[in-house]
Amino acid sequence: MLVLYFLLNDIVLDIDPARMMHPLDAQRFEALSLDYIAQLGKEMFAENPQAHRLNPERARRLCYLIHMKLPRVNAAQFFNQGNRGKAEEVETAFKSLNDMAMGMMYQQQAKGELDYSKVDDAVWQRRAA
Fold it and tell me: Residue 51: CA atoms inside 13 Å, Cβ hemisphere, count?
């Protein structure tokens, strides 16, 4: 299986589904609802808005769980609107981006040319909101 690129907030993570979990784990996680998975992400980002940078493996697992529930989704944003530490103040958004755009963002990131404002302008449009 090919590597999956998944945009989490403002970084593109490379996810190898074959390495993410064992078949028994996959069966167990299939029972999780999307709401439950989103809540896990909200808690993670309420704890630390930079969780995706500080713990990329945990971020990859979250992305993989989202992808298992929504196979066409390859981008997620967890945006903390309030004070740090409150999961209910973290908003979520999911998107499906085309493979070419994901590949281009991954290449820009590898060159150090991808930053929050570029991702926000191209994908999330938070500043305009």
Answer: 23
3-state secondary structure (DSSP) of residue 81: coil
Residue with tokens 């630390």: 48
Q: Could you give the 3-state DSSP secondary structure of residue 60?
A: helix
Can you read off the two tokens belonging to residue 25? 């784990």
Please state the pTM of the whole predicted model.
0.86
Q: Is the pLDDT of residue 129 over 50?
A: no
- CA-to-CA dists, residue 83 to 10, 90, 107, angstroms: 20, 9, 33
Helices (H) and strands (E) in the chain, counts: 7, 4
The Cα 63–Cα 76 span in angstroms is: 8
CA distance 8 to 13: 7
